Records
---
Amino acid sequence: ARDLIGLGYEVVVIEKSRGVGGRLAARRIEGTVVDHGAPLIECVPGSALHGLVHSLARDDVVWMSASTVAYRSGATRLAKLMAEGVEVLLGVRITALRAARAGFELGGEQGNTHGVVDAVVISAPAPQAADLLEQSPEAGTRVTALRAAVYDPAVMILAGMRIRTPSSLEPFAVETPFARITAESARGREPIDGVMPVVARIAPGRSADLFDAADGDILADLAPRLSALCGAVGEPAWTQVKRWRYATLPVRLDPEVVNPPASRIVVCGDTIAGGGLEDVFASGRAAALAVHRALSMAPKHSETLGNGAASRTTS
């Protein structure tokens, strides 16, 4: 979106959730902040993402290493900083991209419309991207390719532990069924009343087994084991369970199949990129260029969202 604005397009970002960030997710619990999505914001020095993070740096940024960054106020901070100066519609779900003149009409859940645009960038997981493309003039074999994507789910346990404040992000020995256990203190967040937030990600196979289980059953089974691994004193002060249905895609899809040449509906994100944030960020920038090339060759419509500019795209 930022790149397209820089190229002179009028852009609107439409987000079905209440806030921006996606897997850069954070939640406020018991007076503190817990990152429960992507465990790290990795950006190699010299990369475009590293440069962006530096250019947007504020006083809540924590450089955990030369290539790893966190935010005391939560991982969503990066997305919020990126969204400054960008028109963002929150809590809006688009369900169809109907043909309209030379562009696409954005169909909402109730059969209503959110206007007509020249191009669309979809960053949703593959099944949701397939649903949108299926209701568009650019369906075809790309929908079949997207439907073939198989994600590993993730179940996370968020817990407030009475433990010594660790100095590293992953200070605990990890055993089955856990895949990763992180301590929020490494992100610059101090314990509150001696309680330190810990985030435990359950391994993919076990997450699949537990995905539809009740929170209480998951916690009864695994919270005591988590406490023991963390060396906690007593039971957790608080616990929550978080689920990600489309957590990771072990095998990415072929970008050329998902995004045929001259497409004006372009898919980006970890559907076609590697799982790292840097790759996902690069795929978004590549989508902006693909849209720019396609629109340079296509006629523009006159009906738009907003103030009536000649060309408008949506992410």
---
Amino acid sequence: IISGSNTYLYIMRSAILFIACMLLLTSNSRAVKVDKDKSLLWRISGNGLTKPSYLFGTIHLICKADYIWTYKMRKSLEACEKVCFELDLDNRETMVAASEGLMDTSGKVLKDYFTPDQFKILKKFVRDSLGMDIALFQQMKPIALQSLMEMKSAPCTDATSYEENIMRIAQKAHKEILGLEDPSEQVGALATLSSDSVAKEMLDDVANFGKSKQDYQQLINAYKKQELPTLYGLITGSEGLGDHMGALLDDRNKKWIDRMTGKMQQNSVFFAVGAGHLLGANGVINLLRKAGYTVEPEK
């Protein structure tokens, strides 16, 4: 671990937030009915709540030209007393603890997942495209490096993050920042990913970097139009995480509902989670409705 390093914390935070974006791009092709409403922002009310809370679907990486932040989004955030992400991103101790899931404890270092020729190609890509020394990632699981590689899919140099921006707004307004999970749960979710499989995907990403950019832009086009059905179609029409979707998406969503309930009963909360968590039979919207809440698009 590069203890106390801002570079290290940046890598770790990017990998954790990247899960949300990754879940938008991969799935196991489950056909589930989705709401036709075009909205990333949802109002949660009823079931004994004295004040409404809000659910917002984020995407970790987006060019500033594509960034949308509507009047309703701003006012909903302002109206809430607290802000809640998947993890408490404002807590350095939480982020350092979560980073343990990115360290490779198998006895391997990064280069051990590749042939010498493959690692040479990867090293050059990291230097030329990421502007970083691959040595920074030697003690980490391949997912840490893959996260930063995916970030380079954005066709701009001014990419921004919804989580980071929402957190800055909350801090400025002195709103408490919360998390739906503790670090050990993020670690457990990451542990379901096979490092060998991720390493193979990384080589494919390097070889097909142009297609990755096209896939990213297709996703962004749907996101900035707030077309959840289109986003869901992109998810279910692709291949990737497969059997890991239960641990990375569905199981986590189910755990979140009781935790969201507890927080909403005490305060109005602006929940900002990866947009992939909103959709499907086990999506947060449907699970909240099953729990007795009224969840409506806030346009």
